[in-house]
Amino acid sequence: MAVFLTVISALLLCQLMFTIWNMKQIPVLKPASLSPDEPISLSILIPARNEEKRLEACLQSIVDQHLYPKELIVLDDHSTDQTRAIAEGFAEKYPWIRVQSGQVLKRGWLGKSYACSQLAEAASSDWLLFLDADVRLKQGAIEAVYKQLCTQKTGMLSGFPEQKTGTPFEHLVVPMMMFTIGCHLPVKWVRKSQNPAFAAAHGGFIAIEKNCYHEIGGHEAIKDSLVDDMALAKRVKAKGFPFTLASIHPFVYMRMYESGQEVWEGYRKNLFPGVNRSIALLSGVFCLYTMLYLVPVICFIIALIQFDVVNLCLAILCYGLGVSIKAVIDIENGRTSTMAFLLPVSIMSLIAIGFASMKIGLKKEGYEWKGRRYE
Fold it and tell me: What range(s) does the Glycosyltransferase 2-like domain occupy (predicted)?
């Protein structure tokens, strides 16, 4: 056991060092000062389907900005609640906001991609900023984003908003999205390499230059992809356009899910498709996580029962290194490190969701989300 724990602690130490370096490679959006009268060629595009609980706060955060976009378009995707009424209320007050009715979903398309495609067709700006209805902009967000876009000139920019969580399952699972990226994706190569394998994006916040968007085929090229954000990012890189994964949490936050059930369904929809439905890859990652983060806990219990001081200390070291990795990633993404101590529970939760996602994918039962079923 001592040899095993020594090897694990060495691997975790290497992982910690890589993670610290890796997180520092993410460019951070910086405050910018632009005149409110300065015209900016930016269209904010929001697909909305039954978002009455979230849309008002999203729109309010945008109209509270010092600098407005050229236009904001909300696409009502056949909502059955007050989504459209909320959007129209803002459109009545602000002439640069308008509401568009979504067309009937075409065969072969997924709902969000079809909504985004319609929004892109309606937009008139050089830059398209797709936002989810649960995204909130902090003051100065539009200036900071637009300055970065003007510097980049073309291509795509995405980033992971600060994640607000409420329920216990949210606290445990939602931050694991950045945990996997921080541990495994060399962020430096996201910017420097045109290899689509080095890509990560968050569908809640995607800015893309319009010519680039059309050159890669728009959302029509990824119309049947469940993980549309990653698919779009990979096409951008494959076509040779610049891509930036930025740290946007100083200016953008969101609460993706509002219950444990939503977390389960949302992650279940994305996990297996997110690894290209590869049984080997998903199983391999989970085996690695089990070895690094769960087995040391078991070893700790065994060593405690046997009063084995050496192995007890080694197991505690492994646990501490794992917690440190999680804490580094949480802090770099604007979160507290409190929940890092429950990393083994987060890992077990992620594994459970992953195998549920795999089961649905292999049996072709279809993933349910917002009243629609996707294969």
Answer: 43-167
Give the pLDDT confidence score for residue 370 in this predicted structure: 62
Pair 366, 292 in one domain: yes
Say if residue 226 is in the same domain as residue 294: no
**Exposed, middle or buried, 198 (CB in 10 Å: 0-12/13-18/19+)?**
buried
Instruction: Tell me whether residue 261 is in a domain.
Output: no
Give how far Cα 13 sits from Cα of 10, 74, 175, 312, 338, Å: 5, 47, 21, 18, 20
Q: Structurally, how many domains does the chain consist of?
A: 2
Q: Which residue has the higher pLDDT, 370 or 73?
A: 73
> Tell me: the pLDDT tens digits for 94-103?
999 999 999 9
| Pair (160, 284) in one structural domain | no
Angle between the 309-332 and 176-184 helix axes, to the nearest 10 degrees? 100
Contact between 198 and 35 (Cβ < 8 Å): no
- At residue 100, φ and ψ (nearest 5 deg) are -125, 140
Q: What is the rounded average pLDDT of the residues 240-247?
A: 94
Contacting residues for 147 by C-beta, under 8 A, at least 6 apart: 30, 32, 34
Angstrom distance (rounded) from CA 150 to CA 152: 5
Q: Provide the whole-model pTM.
A: 0.91
Residue 327, domain member (yes or no):
yes
Alpha-carbon separation of residue 196 from 55, 167, 190, 234, 281 (angstroms): 33, 35, 9, 5, 17
pLDDT given at position 375 = 60
State the Rg of the chain over Cα.
22
The string of pLDDT tens digits covering residues 170-221 is: 999 999 999 999 999 999 899 888 888 889 999 999 999 999 999 999 999 9
